[in-house]
Amino acid sequence: MKPLASFLFFLFFFNLIIVFISSFTSAYADDPVYSNFLQCLKNQSKSSTNVSNILYSRENTQYNSILTAYIRNLRFSYPTTPKPVLIITPLTPSHVSAAVICSRDQGLHLKIRSGGHDYEGISYVSDDAFVILDMSNLRAIRVDPVAETAYVEAGATLGELYYRIQEKSAVLGFPAGVCPSVGVGGHISGGGYGNMIRKHGLSVDHITDAVVVDAQGRVLNRTTMGEDLFWAIRGGGGASFAVVVSYTLSLVPVPKKVTVFNVKRFNATDLVYKWQFVMKDVDHNLFMRLLLQPVTNPDQPKGGKLATRVTFIALFLGDSDTLISVLNAAFPELGVTKADCLEMTWAQSVLYWANFNQGAPFEVLLNRNYTADYLKRKSDYVQEPISKVGLTLLMNKLVQLAKPGLVFNSYGGVMSTIPTATTPFPHRAGNLFKIQYSTSWKDPGQEAADKNIGLIRELHSFMTPYVSKNPRGAYLNYRDLDIGVNRNWTYVEGEVHGRKYFLGNFDKLVKSVVDPHNFFRNEQSIPVLKS
Ligand SMILES: Cc1cc2nc3c(=O)[nH]c(=O)nc-3n(C[C@H](O)[C@H](O)[C@H](O)COP(=O)(O)OP(=O)(O)OC[C@H]3O[C@@H](n4cnc5c(N)ncnc54)[C@H](O)[C@@H]3O)c2cc1C
Ligand SMILES: *[C@@H]1O[C@H](CO)[C@@H](O)[C@H](O)[C@H]1NC(C)=O
Ligand SMILES: *[C@@H]1O[C@H](CO)[C@@H](O)[C@H](O)[C@H]1NC(C)=O
Ligand SMILES: *[C@@H]1O[C@H](CO)[C@@H](O)[C@H](O)[C@H]1NC(C)=O
Ligand SMILES: *[C@@H]1O[C@H](CO)[C@@H](O)[C@H](O)[C@H]1NC(C)=O
Ligand SMILES: *[C@@H]1O[C@H](CO)[C@@H](O)[C@H](O)[C@H]1NC(C)=O
Ligand SMILES: *[C@@H]1O[C@H](CO)[C@@H](O)[C@H](O)[C@H]1NC(C)=O
């Protein structure tokens, strides 16, 4: 061996030995962050729970599986992604209270995670020394079919909520998101919409009470927290104000029979153009979502050329005969026939919209084990119909970019009549539809991420003339750190994203009373002082 090579060889083994010794010692050394936090939890503990069993440090063998169980975007699951110093998994509201007090006393930043669906991972990533408050064990659901209410804890998923509702009633439902793995805590505190939005509005339009833990560690309900905080946690994002422990929901009536369809069209510019006008005022029982995607052109399957395909997906709260007569009057060009329609119960439509096979058991809604992709999402609101010329350019742009897709979600219906200040969620009357920009990929390399994020940003920029302006609105639950990043906890930038997410309601989201020391903060939280 040459001297240099043998020296490197020696260095390599020397390092291995050092690594071995240090991992050996650290595994047994008393980690002061962990032991102080544990002692604090014990001091705070009002229950008989052995709090050692709800606190995980990096040395704990379960730390990794608990961390990754609710990571739904692989962009935030690299070995280099900042990891929490501790994870705490409360079983009771008093554990949540202790977690808040101990994080504050130990000077650790608390990040709250329920379903972990945040598109930018801000519920489980941070640049500083942080603790994850993982709510997944606080997930009780109690449905009262007589009172037509449900008590649901923040760690429950929407799938679990829908499952418990159909267990108790065939004529009750709840208007929330279509993806069953989404967590109640983030979803509802950020607004929450699904395919009953035109009939029943948002999830936050149906909340009658809540339990939260505030920055002082107090467990409060609607009466004791006061109406300002209760208003803020219905669309203002829970993580700026308090930990949401549970919501009490008022359920909505659903008919015994609903109808769905899914039809695909090419060369669909005229149909999309017409759809914009139809959905504003058509029967509130109808919701129609469009997927615009570049796919292999069926006319040139061998040539590898792409064409933009538009998928029309509908939920109608009624039978297929009524739906067909509604469509014949309002949208005959779409050419939907009874043969395209499927009649089913509302609960079965939940499975249909979540892409489960017909006849899958409702128990699939209870599954919590999903595989994740790398992804990036963005949002926009459209207030003026896009012209046919504009739509043609858009269809071509999607083919040119050859990757990102768009989802158009119809508004109108009751969204046009609920006053803007009812909840922090401001995008109501005056909006024809919301756009979600979407790209997902499987290649873990940085190049794939840069390419996909670049494409979606280009598409977003292309859409500028067609969407809301001054400010350009965005949906909080479609978290996008491209708008107004705030990593210094100073608030000039805070206003940029705050105005986009909340428009005029931003001024009503007052934090200084409930959290004057800005304990509840994240990359896009509401600032204490607005400039
Ligand atoms: C596959 C998929 C489908 C989706 N479909 C829809 C849809 O149909 N409709 C729709 O409106 N949205 C949809 N979304 C967006 C979704 O509503 C948001 O990502 C939502 O914030 C997720 O909530 P979570 O609890 O799962 O997320 P988390 O990542 O746990 O939390 C999101 C944010 O809320 C905060 N938070 C979480 N729990 C609490 C709590 N208990 N108290 C206070 N703050 C809390 C977090 O700190 C973070 O800031 C979808 C997202 C995905 C990934
Ligand atoms: C726990 O309580 C004891 C006794 O009151 C106190 O001395 C100690 O500082 C507390 N420790 C922590 C970490 O809160
Ligand atoms: C609490 O749990 C830990 C870890 O499981 C265990 O080592 C400890 O003995 C338990 N303490 C009590 C008082 O039961
Ligand atoms: C809210 O909390 C107060 C004080 O603990 C209690 O008296 C009241 O009954 C609670 N309200 C509800 C609806 O539970
Ligand atoms: C789209 O329209 C063009 C021009 O009318 C036609 O040639 C083509 O076959 C259509 N494509 C599809 C997939 O319908
Ligand atoms: C989750 O699914 C993966 C892949 O299908 C499987 O390997 C794993 O064992 C499952 N985990 C649990 C807890 O069911
Ligand atoms: C953070 O904000 C403070 C106060 O405005 C400012 O002085 C400081 O330069 C900022 N730091 C960074 C890294 O932006």
TrEMBL record:
Pfam families: BBE, FAD_binding_4
InterPro entries xref list: BBE, FAD-bd_PCMH, FAD-bd_PCMH-like_sf, FAD-bd_PCMH_sub1, FAD-bd_PCMH_sub2, Oxid_FAD_bind_N
Residues annotated as signal peptide: 1-29
Cofactors that this protein relies on: FAD
Sample GO molecular function, one term: FAD binding
Residue span(s) of domain FAD-binding PCMH-type: 80-254
Entry keywords, A to Z: Disulfide bond, FAD, Flavoprotein, Glycoprotein, Signal
Domain of life of the source: Eukaryota
Alphabetized PANTHER family for the sequence: OS08G0158400 PROTEIN (PTHR32448)
Family note: Belongs to the oxygen-dependent FAD-linked oxidoreductase family.
Protein name: FAD-binding PCMH-type domain-containing protein
Source organism of this protein record: Carnegiea gigantea
